[in-house]
Amino acid sequence: MAEDLMTDTHKTDTQKGRVEIDDVVIRFKGRQGPVTALARTSHVLEPGTFTALIGPSGCGKSTLMNAIAGFVKPSEGSLRLDGKPIAGPSPEVGVIFQQYALFPWFTALNNVRYGLKQFGLPQGEEIDRARAALAEVGLEAHADKYPQQLSGGMKQRVAIARTFAVGPKVLLMDEPFGALDAQTRLVMHELLLNIWRKHRATVLFVTHDVDEALLLSDHVQVMSQAPGRLIRHYHLTQQRPRAFSRSGSDLLEIRDEILDLLHPKTDLADSL
Ligand SMILES: Nc1ncnc2c1ncn2[C@@H]1O[C@H](COP(=O)(O)OP(=O)(O)OP(=O)(O)O)[C@@H](O)[C@H]1O
């Protein structure tokens, strides 16, 4: 299979989509004063790379994503996209959530067209682009269906088509496949990797699923308990498609290490 032969190395020098997270701290107002949602964090997402972010519940994963998306302003530090400060939401940064966020009163095609409105394209071109995006996710035959006529996986495909149609430099995905069954997730993994290879957006992918992180990403960043910070980085160079059983690699070892970091073993004797 051609995919097996692909090296997953890519040019990063000429590509756009470099995200710099520089000394960022995020606090929210709590009832008893400020609450730190993200402890001091510095990191760079290199253009065109795929990074998974994994960590305990409430450690600040979504908060970091929301800051990169421009929805939340850092309390300290700065965020830049290709050298420019991130000052608010922009079409250069696409976001996909676990909930599909489709308009129920629009067809699949019109949901994708909605994302393209900002470009003021002639109608014919807008429709062609939306159809091409749906074809990329294998939904050309379902363009005229409404979200309620689509399965969960199909809805998420529409959301992916809508986001990639805009041509974002950065794609933030917050547990995008968390609501899907195991079989559909596998299909979505392959689909996402194929589209990502073609578009080469910089992807930051939040997941609770260590296996999903290891199968998809170039980099896995593990966060600490709240208030979260990045505590461990893994650079994965294994060719895709990956599988634990036949990887002949250290994926299983890395999986165990990450699980230990996420669920440290407490010595029962110590707690007695
Ligand atoms: N707008 C807000 N106002 C106040 N506190 C907030 C706000 N957003 C997040 N928090 C708090 O910040 C902390 C981090 O939340 P966040 O949603 O980023 O965690 P998470 O790692 O994404 O969690 P999960 O894995 O459960 O989705 C939590 O304690 C949360 O309650």
Automatic annotation (TrEMBL):
Residues 19-250 form the ABC transporter domain. InterPro entries: AAA+_ATPase, ABC_transporter-like_ATP-bd, ABC_transporter-like_CS, ABC_transporter_ATP-bind, P-loop_NTPase. The keyword Nucleotide-binding applies. PROSITE patterns: ABC_TRANSPORTER_1, ABC_TRANSPORTER_2. Keywords: ATP-binding, Nucleotide-binding, Transport. One of its GO terms (molecular function) is ATP binding. Belongs to the ABC transporter superfamily. This is ABC transporter ATP-binding protein. It comes from Salipiger bermudensis (strain DSM 26914 / JCM 13377 / KCTC 12554 / HTCC2601).
